[in-house]
Design brief:
Shape: elongated
Number of domains: 2
Order of helices and strands: HEEHEHEHEEHEHEHEHEHEHEEH
CATH superfamily of the largest domain: Response regulator
CATH topology of the largest domain: Rossmann fold
Strand order of the largest sheet: 1-3-2-4-5-6-12
Helix content: 40-55%
Strand content: 15-25%
CATH architecture of the largest domain: 3-Layer(aba) Sandwich
CATH class of the largest domain: Alpha Beta
Structural class: alpha/beta
Largest sheet: 7 strands, mixed
Number of helices: 11
Length: about 325
């Protein structure tokens, strides 16, 4: 059980200084209750992760828990994420919710953490790692499968696909790619080129240019996240390509691009639910309650048909980030 946290001004300042001293990006600590849950996303410089943070805050309200949130400066800053986890443990958190930036490099610090508190993995699983109390996130293979099935329908079972992948070795990215490839098996659709762009929008512009220089008549492009899909738009427009473009995440800007005709589809995750359920489950585990070892937060195929209604949902979830306070 967590210790009662007195909400005095000096103590709040002290907690914030401790978190900031670890480096990285700081989100507000939501001091709402006795239980303290540390939440460590991969970064807070992307809409997806900001949405998980808002979900985590909602989960803290439901469970009357204090949510301490800190993130590295970028998805590749693994050393920062390791230091953040170590720092949160010194703050006597009762549970941790972590989205591992690297499933291999993060394992040692999470092993140590699991000896002290429940550890919930969010978004990115560490396959076959037994100490985790639960994995909460998307079935990324299913997301790739959904994207591939959409492409197969739009392409009438034939044509060429260019693939823009994320960080090499990323479990979610690899699973999305595998799902997409599975969907186009036994068709006349071929993946003719593949370029990694580290889930980065700017790098995806160059990756898309590389694909188009080699394969100027691409019929379709699958990017394993929306940021890379949004970067691909710039190159597709420069080359005047009408290739079908599909991403994964369900980002607001990607949804707007679908409405505007610059993208065809995205397979939306539910980052708000990930954060909310993650904190709820962490709190329950810290209270000695049993929790499900794996929770799938679902996917939604977003196309021009349902993009306007989906956009309203995402805007409501983001709330104050888009200028609308909760």
């Amino acid at each position: 059980m967590g210790r009662k946290l007195a909400l005095s001004g000096p103590l709040i300042v002290f907690v914030l200084l401790l978190v900031m001293g670890c480096g990285g990006q700081l989100a507000p600590s939501y001091l709402t209750g006795e239980m303290k849950v540390g939440y460590v996303p991969k970064t807070l410089d992307q809409e997806f992760w900001v949405t998980t943070e808002k979900g985590a805050r909602a989960g803290g309200r439901v469970e009357n828990a204090t949510v301490l949130v800190q993130a590295p400066t970028g998805e590749l800053a693994v050393d920062e994420q390791i230091a953040i986890v170590e720092n949160l443990l010194t703050q006597n958190v009762d549970a941790l919710v972590v989205a591992p930036s690297d499933s291999i490099l993060m394992k040692p610090v999470l092993e140590r953490a699991s000896e002290e508190v429940p550890v919930i993995l969010l978004d990115t699983d560490i396959p076959k790692w037994k100490p985790k109390d639960s994995y909460i996130g998307t079935d990324n293979f299913a997301a790739g499968l959904e994207a591939g099935r959409y492409l197969e329908r739009q392409m009438n079972g034939k044509g060429s696909i260019g693939l823009i992948t994320g960080i090499p070795g990323s479990v979610p990215g690899d699973q999305r790619e595998a799902g997409m490839r599975k969907a186009i098996e036994n068709t006349d659709i071929k993946v003719v080129g593949e370029v990694a762009a580290d889930f980065d929008r700017l790098k995806a512009v160059g990756a898309m240019e590389d694909l188009l220089q080699t394969h100027p008549n691409l019929d379709a492009v699958f990017a394993t996240n929306d940021q890379m899909a949004l970067g691909a738009i710039e190159a597709l427009q420069t080359y005047q390509s009408d290739a079908i473009l599909v991403g994964v995440d369900g980002a607001v800007e990607a949804t707007q691009a679908i409405i505007g005709g610059d993208m065809d589809a995205t397979v939306a995750q539910n980052p708000y639910a990930m954060g909310k359920v993650g904190v709820e489950q962490a709190t329950r585990a810290a209270n000695g309650k049993s929790i499900d070892p794996r929770i799938n937060t679902g996917i939604t195929l977003v196309t021009k048909k349902n993009a306007p209604s989906y956009l309203k949902i995402r805007e409501e979830q983001l709330g104050s980030l888009l200028g609308v306070e909760e």
